[in-house]
Amino acid sequence: MQRVCFLLKVRADRTEEYRARHAEVWPEMCQALSESGWHNYSLFLREDGLLVGYLETEDFEAAKAAMDATDVNARWQAEMGEFFEALDGARPDEAMRPLTEVFHLA
């Protein structure tokens, strides 16, 4: 199982709305994530907008590709894009760059 961690930056003035949106993630989005191989997926948000994402998956590239093929992901990303800084025209899911794991206590 691959452990994946990534960082994104939510606009500081949109953090409360971002939290509210994630308190009510669409059921079909949750189902698509699960079916696409995203397991133990968590998002952590600091007050200044730093977003840390974590998930476990068999194959991150395959899991991203499976989500990319869903209509619900396209709709969710279109709605969420306005919350982020420095995407340079990319969707939030396209801007995720996994961090290199340097230690894991098994």
TrEMBL record:
<dbReference type="GO" id="GO:0016857">
    <property type="term" value="F:racemase and epimerase activity, acting on carbohydrates and derivatives"/>
</dbReference>
<protein>
    <submittedName>
        <fullName>L-rhamnose mutarotase</fullName>
    </submittedName>
</protein>
<dbReference type="InterPro" id="IPR011008">
    <property type="entry name" value="Dimeric_a/b-barrel"/>
</dbReference>
<dbReference type="GO" id="GO:0019301">
    <property type="term" value="P:rhamnose catabolic process"/>
</dbReference>
<dbReference type="InterPro" id="IPR008000">
    <property type="entry name" value="Rham/fucose_mutarotase"/>
</dbReference>
<dbReference type="Pfam" id="PF05336">
    <property type="entry name" value="rhaM"/>
</dbReference>
